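Dear Dr. H.,

I hope your travels went smoothly. While you were away I took the liberty of generating a structure for the chain from your last submission, since the lab meeting agenda had it listed for discussion. I wanted you to have the full record in hand beforehand rather than looking at slides cold. The sequence, exactly as received, is reproduced here:
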Amino acid sequence: MTNTVVKKPRLLLYAVLASLILLTNYILYRTTMFGPVPEGAVIGSLLDLIIILPLMTYLLIIRKRYSLKYMGIVIFAGFAAAYFIIPQQHLSDYPFLPYLLMVSEGAFLLFELYIAYTIITRLPKLLREYKKLAGQNSFFQFNIRKAVETNLPNNNAIKIFVTEFSMFHYALFSWKKKSQIEHGQAFTYHKKTSVNAVYIMIIHAIALESIGLHYFLHSWNPIVSYILLFLNIYGILFILAEMQATRLTPFLLTTEHLLLQTGFSKSMHVPLSNIKEIKHYEGPEKFSRKEGAELYDARVPDLIQEKPLFEILLHEPQDVHLIYGLKRKATRIVLNVDDPDVFYHELKRSLPE
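The corresponding predicted structure, in token form, is as follows:
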């Protein structure tokens, strides 16, 4: 609770400061509010966008929370903001900028190569661990994450790679696969919903937006149009991964744990010893922001989102695994399943006395 209270002012402060930096620099160069651009202003703007903004991002967002790998993205975003905000005639006075960008991206590339080297040297152990887990179930993302945590613990950069690898696997290479469970009971959670229709509508909207905006923006700025096209393609792959993961990863109940992987983007691995009770949900249809911060909602998106059928209370807060290695804690779980009576009685029966 304390972490949540502290986190919100920090994020708000960052949003305000970052917005001020971007807005003031945009007004300086793209409007006549302050008159002609003063001599030496470009140096100040470059310091703002390439040094101050990344440093502020590190201190307020990344430090002690996320992998340093994100700094490469932040620095690149600072360079991109400088090129889009500062007119070219001002940037031409500083020919060293492209070389500075090349050096920064080179360092980022070396870091990527180091990650690849680390994975390759541990690959035999990773494969053995993955095959061992894959022999028990077909939960690709869960199995590969467990293999990485066993052989490369506390490596946040590798967790980002796991997300990307899992996304491409589900989106492109899993269409002919079927869910396989050797140990435990599987419970589907999507067949009585319209989740596939929701995802197809999103993909359709992204595709139409991509085609229309690409041609519109290409006449204005080809670089922006291609960046947007790349992001839209990435978004479509992400939604396809969600669809496939939803089909291939039912909830799994074993004698020791309950695995709840909702699609591709979030999951929770709960030891049965940490489950306090399961009961029929009797609360409101919508959750407050405070409730949502301490809750794992294991339902899939639906055109008409119904109330959860069940609520699971935990003895201790449990990790909710999100994409790119991110985590948060939850003390409650709400969910729906396609066979509610069997799920309720089997989980109730499996809980320790």
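Two observations you may find useful: Confidence is low (pLDDT under 50) at residues 1-6. Residues 195-242 form one domain.

With kind regards,
E. W.
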